[in-house]
Structure formats: structure tokens, C-alpha cells
């Protein structure tokens, strides 16, 4: 039963909440224990909030999931966990989040609340509206980064915010494209209604724009006057190849291997992607903290 709740809460998806650490790293506070601990707390709150969203979403989509070739194995769709038990879990998660939400500060609390409301609105309305569905996903990632900044009371570069927006748009677009391709090639009924408004050609064009925007915004961030002044070095530009490789590798896996439907699986199962992320973090940390 524990394994089923592990799936219900989507624990592997918590990796997305690592975006709250972006302001910590780039504000040069990673090595300060008090900042690290409060950011870890923020990560935990966002993880619980995201699990709450997943539970609500699974309850709402239970009938559609039963018709999906993979999603039919989810705990609710398969009947391994009852709707009543899922609702009880959601209430417990909501209580825990509410009682801990205001511990850091009001700005952080409002950001988490906005994230939750956005995702609930997404589950009921936005995911059925073309383009707004992927922009809602992007907004969720941006709120994670903003929350990471609010929780330690630091400013964050506008270029990093833009980079976050475009990379999350890119991931959302690739997810839609993969879902579209799988439904066409495997003759599977379209369970996500918004897919009828997309085509492979349209998603290809959007993916190209988003991928280019990620690379450009990040490259401009590394050479921005504010960035160079804060870090007292121009060497951050040497981390750009890791970003370019990550984008290209993800596109390769989505286009050639049809692996873009589950972002988390791509990030934690592809060896090249894992090594690239590790090298990026190490090189970035070295440049910022060991000038």
C-alpha cells in the first residue's frame, strides 16, 4: 500500500521543485547553512503542495486515466486506492501545508498559494485551452523560482526568470508533442482533449522558438553587466554549452525515442542527461564560489 501512495503522491516528480534552489545558488548563499535549511524547507512545502495537486488532478481525471494506456495503472484509475482514501490524503496534506505555510514569510506563503490555485484552475479549466495549458505549466516553474527568492529574501535576475519561463515552456511543448505522436502512431484514443488543437508541425515550431529562447536568455544572463559585477567573473559563460547540450539531448530523446511525455523520467533515467546536469552544477558552483 505504501508503494501505491508513493505513486499517488508522485514522489519522483518532486525533482521539479529543485527550481526553488536556483536563487540560493545564484545569490552566492549556497554555503550558508541558515539559507540552505530554509530553502530545503521551501522545497518540502512545494513538494507537498505538488503532491496535493496531483491527488486532486487524479481524482478529477480518473475516468480519462482509465482509458489511457499508461495512466490506467495509476493507483486511483486502477482502483488500488479508493477515491475516499485519496480525498482523505488530500485533506491531510492541505492541513500540513496550511500550518507550515506562513513560517518563512508572507511573500513565500502567497507564492505557494498562487501555485496551488493555478494548478487547481489548470486541472479544471486551463488544461483544456490551447496554449494556456503550456503557459500554465511555465507559470508553475516561475513561481517555484520566485518562491526560492522570497524565502531567503534575495533579488533574482530577470534573465534567469525568462530562462525559467522558456525552459518550462519548452518542456511543456515537448510533452504535448510526444503525447500527440504516441496517440497517432499507436492508434490510441486521445484522452487529453486539448491535443486536438495541436499538430506535430505546430509543436515543432513552438519547440524551436522556446529552445532558442532558453539558450539566448541564459547566454545573455551569463554576460550581463549585473551578473559579471555580482560574481566578479565573466567565466559563467562557459556553462552555456551544458545548457545547449541539455536542450539538444532532450529534443533528441523526444523526437527520436518518444520520451518527452514524462519529463522526470527523461531527467533521471538518461545517463547523458544525468552527467550533463551534474557537470553543469559542479562547473557553475566552482565558478560562482571558487573564483
The CATH architecture of the largest domain comes to Orthogonal Bundle
CATH topology of the largest domain, by name, is Tetracycline Repressor, domain 2
Q: Please estimate the helix content.
A: over 70%
Structural class: mainly alpha
How far apart lie the N and C ends? 50 Å
**What is the overall pLDDT average?**
90
- Low-confidence stretches at least 5 residues in length (pLDDT < 50)? none
CATH fourth-tier homologous superfamily of the largest domain: UbiA prenyltransferase
Describe the protein in words.
This protein is globular. It has helices at residues 2-8, 22-26, 33-60, 62-66, 83-100, 106-124, 132-151, 158-185, 200-223, 225-231, 240-257, 263-269, 271-289. The protein folds into two domains: 1-152, Tetracycline Repressor, domain 2, CATH 1.10.357.140; 157-291. With 291 residues, the protein is mainly α. The protein starts with a helix and ends with a helix.
